[in-house]
Design brief:
Largest sheet: 9 strands, mixed
Strand order of the largest sheet: 10-9-8-11-12-13-18-22-21
Number of domains: 3
Number of helices: 21
Strand content: 5-15%
Shape: elongated
CATH class of the largest domain: Alpha Beta
CATH architecture of the largest domain: 3-Layer(aba) Sandwich
Length: 630
């Protein structure tokens, strides 16, 4: 009952005017004490004059505190800014008393405005001591009572610098918080072994299983600004192995109103552990690029297409046309946009393989920018269905790109993949041929053809992260195809930022590639996801090696053999300088490939693909027989 009463009180704040009244009472009390101290604790002064001066001091204090707004703060949340306001307020009060005393003496006017300078100074010191001391006392008592009725999680703060101190203050100053800081961890040898705020600073090596058990540690809050993701991964992995939960303090620019609150401290997630810096693009040219434009997005119901659509809604486009064959996800995107109040968009269920249907859409809407994200992208499925891969990834691209030239589209942006580089599977090979086809069209009209290549996208349909999450929910095991397999990763948001930037940056004919940092070992990623889920590897959930799937690489690449790159104005974005091709020959080969029908045997289809792409060497696939014949 008492606990419930206290918790109910904790949600209520004292009136600001009640706080003001209390502060004024303290100022009045300290004024009387200042007189007593000035006269050596004897009543050798005119008490009547002092009593007459009290209303004036009361009024002057009211004006001072009103100016700085010190009465607006919540006493139990008193912080550094509140203390500064109090100091400023009492100094304004002292200044008012000094000025009125000066003019009173200048005019030889002995009155209540004539206060001894020593009394004013003593009063100033007493006000600082009593006002700050009382508020900190109330805060301390409140926190102490709340801590007594709530069980606290014992935590360590990683980082004993300024960010760590702010994190410590945020945790200790929030009575609703359920954490108790036990100690600090720091990499700086000069800090290790010393005390900060009465708490010891340890090195990471000292945080052992025995230490964690002895001190009942549950969480570690990493409070290091601009920490390298690779270092974060290293620290987190070591802490995960001790069974600790790891949280991280967001960058200071993300703090609300410049202040850190406990609610902003979040669990470390898999995006934080990718070992690469996230892309950041701020380009005012994007606003002009999409202003008053009619924009087509194919594959709009997919992970990439839908995020491109979301980001495009931030600009003043004229019309947004969202095209896909996936009815249900397209409907969900439509409802999302309706709820958000997005204007001037249309969703269309249509297939990019249907040239007549696409022609009709181009005639109806006359787009000026096309983002072509429609594609089949699952490696094992396309390895078994090469006809579908050709018809969508090549045929669909051929339809859209040709219509873009015919209808005078300004820019055509092809969404490609790192699997198109030195392809070892049907999916990657068909995407590389799509790249070649748009390259063949460059310069044949006003359309600027731009290609973007990037690696695996976190959270996209069919990517490894959702698969691992589902396997964890089902109790495991997590399936990894090879112990050493690695992949590049970026978030969906980053991938789509790159696509929008490429459309603005590109002058036609470029293949934009992204500096994605270090590749990530999928086996390690699986282990970290198990631990992030609060489970142990392999005791709770194991990892099963299933063997490479048909056409799958152990390592992915971003640039093909014979290619190099040149920089752009953004350090993370580069342009691939591709090897020359015979446009007339390649165009004819692609045209012949697109004429095949569903009755053609898979080996024949893949053979035609390999004729176009000599660098396409199958891996762990039944189509390796075609390479041996070569």
């Amino acid at each position: 009952m008492i606990k419930g009463l206290l918790q109910n009180i904790s949600h209520k704040y004292a009136s600001r005017w009640l706080v003001m009244l209390f502060d004024l009472c303290i100022v009045t009390l300290t004024f009387i004490i200042a007189y007593i101290i000035r006269f050596n604790f004897k009543l050798d002064f005119d008490i009547l004059v002092m009593l007459k001066q009290i209303p004036f001091v009361f009024l002057a204090a009211f004006i001072s505190f009103l100016l700085v707004g010190s009465h607006k703060s919540v006493v139990r949340f008193t912080g550094f800014k509140d203390i500064v306001n109090i100091v400023i307020g009492v100094n304004i009060l002292a200044t008012i008393l000094i000025i009125t005393t000066f003019f009173s003496r200048k005019l030889n006017y002995q009155s209540i405005f004539n206060i001894s300078g020593s009394i004013i100074y003593i009063h100033l010191m007493l006000n600082i001591l009593f006002l700050i001391g009382f508020k900190l006392f109330v805060k301390s008592m409140y926190n102490s009572v709340m801590q007594d009725i709530e069980t606290k999680k014992r935590v360590l703060i990683y980082g004993a610098g300024s960010s760590g101190m702010l994190t410590y203050d945020a945790i200790t100053n929030d009575p609703k918080n359920s954490h108790e800081v036990v100690a600090f961890i720091d990499d700086n040898a000069r800090k290790v072994g010393k005390k900060i705020n009465t708490l010891y600073v340890y090195s990471l090596e000292k945080i052992t299983a025995d230490f964690v058990e002895k001190n009942a540690i549950e969480d570690v809050v990493i409070s290091i600004q601009n920490i390298e993701p690779s270092r974060l991964l290293e620290i987190s992995t070591q802490l995960f192995e001790l069974g600790l939960k790891v949280k991280i303090v967001p960058p200071v620019q993300n703090w609300i109103d410049g202040d850190l609150s406990v609610g902003q401290i979040k669990d470390v997630n898999i995006e934080d552990l990718l070992g690469r810096e996230p892309i950041s693009i701020v380009n005012p040219a994007l606003v002009h690029e999409y202003e008053n434009q009619i924009i087509f997005i194919t594959g709009a119901a997919g992970s990439i297409g839908s995020e491109i659509a979301r980001k495009t809604t931030n600009y003043a486009y004229k019309k947004l046309i969202l095209i896909d064959t996936a009815e249900s996800p397209l409907y969900e995107l439509q409802q999302e946009f309706i709820q958000k109040g997005v204007k001037n968009f249309t969703v269309i269920v249509a297939d990019v393989r249907d040239i007549k249907r696409m022609e009709s859409l181009f005639n109806t809407y006359r787009p000026k920018i096309v983002f072509h994200a429609a594609a089949y992208k699952h490696v094992p499925l396309m390895e078994n269905n090469p006809y579908e891969a050709v018809s969508v990834n090549i045929g669909g691209t051929r339809n859209m790109a040709s219509l873009a030239v015919k209808h005078g589209v300004n820019k055509f942006v092809l969404i490609s993949t790192d699997k198109a580089v030195n392809p070892t599977n049907v999916m990657g090979a068909t995407k590389r041929i799509a790249e070649l086809f748009v390259n063949c069209l460059q310069g044949k009209g006003q359309t600027k053809f731009i290609t973007t290549r990037f690696g695996n996208v976190l959270g996209s349909n069919g990517s490894v992260i959702p698969l691992f999450k589902k396997q964890i929910e089902n109790g495991g095991p997590l399936t990894v195809t090879h112990q050493d397999i690695t992949r590049y990763f970026m978030t969906i948001s980053e991938a789509c930022q790159l696509v929008l930037e490429a459309a603005t940056m590109g002058n036609g004919g470029e293949i934009f590639v992204f500096d994605m940092g270090e590749s990530v070992k999928i086996f390690d990623l699986a282990k970290n996801m198990i631990i992030l889920s609060g489970l142990r590897y392999p005791e709770d959930i194991d990892i099963k090696i299933t063997g490479l799937r048909p056409g799958e690489k152990i390592y992915e690449e971003l640039l093909a053999d014979g290619e190099n790159t040149r920089p752009t104005y953004h350090e993370k974005i580069m342009i691939a300088k591709t090897i020359p091709i015979d446009v007339s020959v390649v165009s004819e080969q692609i045209s012949n490939l697109c004429k095949i029908n569903s009755k053609v045997q898979n080996l024949e289809i893949v053979s035609l693909i390999k004729d176009i792409l000599p660098e396409y060497i199958s891996n762990n696939s039944k189509f390796e027989v075609l390479d041996s014949k070569k």
